[in-house]
Amino acid sequence: MAMKTKQELKDVFSGLSSIMLVKGGIADFASVEPDFDLPVTVDTLSLSQAEPTLNRTKVHGLQADWAVTSTAGDITFAATVPSVSKELVEYFLGKTNVIEQAVINNQQFEGFSAVLNSKKLNVGFALISDDGEKCLLVKRMAIYARPLFENASTTPFAFALSGTIEIEDGATSGSSSEDNIAFLTKKSSLTVAPTSLSFSNTADNTGKTITATTKESTVSASSTETWCKTSVSGKVVTVKVAENSGASKRTATVNISTPTEFGQVEVTQEGSTI
Fold it and tell me: Fewest CB within 10 angstroms: 49, 135, 214, 235, which?
């Protein structure tokens, strides 16, 4: 197997545009319905796992370890939500009670009350990257919300969220139902027609066309084989082929792309019958 280059391995999740919470956790990665698009203070969200603890066994007479086992490090989550929205307070703390009128220093107020407590919340998270092209899903976490009101002149009252990913005992079989994190990429909206082209063994200097449907005004195209040539006019790709003097059928792939989308068309050419 050929070595993967750095460019081939470049697949980056960077920045955050949305942090969505799913009450009760995510049951199925294939269908996620978030309950809140949380307002989270910049640079307060973190998800990390501590280094494993190595348990070394040594025996008399040997300098090297006799055996080494490990204990996985704790997984921790943290985020700060600077909002006292009634819906969020009810979720973080529990039941609220309406205060229809309160007179404070001869001024009238209205609102609601709640009990500050340490309530365990089972949640899932859907994190959307800054460019909207990537999504990171965390299936199930146990988190707690505590009030945070420091530097009151510069920062608003907030709820500090902290917790950990809950891993079920025995979740080691590799079944997708036991996976607790998912890395997703937005599907391309680019479509191509036709999705395959066939040529006889003779050279075709007129070519056949592929039409791309995309929100972009133009596309680019390239072929994986030198005998298969491409040219582009707007969203139409023309494919031409050289003569195939060999007896075997041959195949090429035409890659059609925009800066954010990608599609492929398989091109086959018959071999010579002579």
Answer: 49
Count of residues for the chain?
Answer: 274
Does residue 67 lie in a domain region?
no
Tokens 């979720």 belong to 91
User: Residue 265, exposed/middle/buried by CB under 10 A (0-12, 13-18, 19+)?
Assistant: buried
Per-residue pLDDT reduced to its tens digit, 92-112? 999 999 999 999 999 999 999
Beta bridge partners of 99: 111
Q: What is the pLDDT of residues 224-236, one digit of tens each?
A: 999 999 999 999 9
Q: How many CB atoms lie within 10 A of CB 45?
A: 18
Q: Are 33 and 123 part of one and the same domain?
A: yes
Its domain, for residue 217, covers 191-269
Answer for the pair 74, 164: CB distance below 8 angstroms, yes or no: yes
| Spatial CA neighbour of 59 closest among 50, 51, 68 | 68
3-state secondary structure (DSSP) of residue 89: helix
Cβ neighbours for 1, distance < 8 A, ≥ 6 positions apart: none
